[in-house]
């Protein structure tokens, strides 16, 4: 699965994208969030923890809004993490 981070999520993760192998064919979006938070427990200096940013972010799964934290995320998907943006 490819995870792409934007804005504050990119800063908190310390990268703009990463490939994350899933240990089973599909996980829920919430499980993916927890996995990402474990992969990035320490934020870069001056940034909030990734777990905090993920909690207030919106998600796109393969380009489609994914508001349901229980939605399955298949291996091979693209998950975009979109924190709130100032100004709309």
UniProtKB/TrEMBL annotation:
Gene3D superfamilies: 3.10.20.30. It holds the Pfam family ThiS. It comes from the Bacteria. This is Molybdopterin synthase sulfur carrier subunit.
């Amino acid at each position: 699965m490819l995870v792409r981070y934007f804005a504050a999520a990119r800063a908190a993760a310390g990268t703009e994208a990463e490939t994350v192998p899933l240990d089973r064919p599909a996980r829920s979006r919430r499980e993916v969030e927890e996995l990402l938070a474990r992969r990035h427990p320490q934020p870069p200096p001056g940034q909030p923890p990734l777990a905090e940013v993920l909690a207030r972010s919106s998600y796109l799964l393969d380009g489609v809004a994914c508001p349901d934290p229980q939605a399955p995320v298949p291996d091979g998907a693209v998950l975009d993490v979109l924190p709130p943006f100032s100004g709309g």
